[in-house]
Design brief:
Elements lengths: L17 E5 L11 E5 L7 E10 L2 E5 L9 H4 L7 E8 L2 H6 L2
Antiparallel strand pairs: 1-5, 2-3, 2-5, 3-4
Length: 100
């Protein structure tokens, strides 16, 4: 997955590419991990955010760059069924450019 926005700076920069492990029903991300979900209001848009807590109503997700992030502060808890996976690594810039 290619990072397009600045909401996860300084952890992830625009243009970075990350590896995402899809989560099955039995696997769940740990608090503090960076996860990918579908946007709760725009079905074709993916979000990449840090998992801060798990509420009764869903996942509480925040960007690492609060001034540039649309996250649970605006969206509320994101339903758990929208979770795609957990980021498990970032490709080095040189390798990510070769992967185009």
């Amino acid at each position: 997955m290619r990072i397009e926005g600045r909401s996860m700076q300084p952890t992830l920069e625009p243009g970075d590419r990350v590896l995402v492990r899809r989560l099955g029903r039995k696997l769940s991300p740990s608090l503090g991990s960076v996860v990918v979900t579908w946007h709760p209001q725009r079905s074709k848009l993916r979000l990449i955010k840090r998992l801060k807590s798990v509420e009764e109503t869903g996942l509480w997700l925040l960007g690492d760059n609060p001034t540039e992030s649309t996250d649970s502060r605006q969206l509320g808890a994101v339903p758990t069924n929208l979770l795609i996976g957990e980021v498990v690594g970032r490709l080095p810039r040189g390798e990510s450019e070769q992967g185009r």
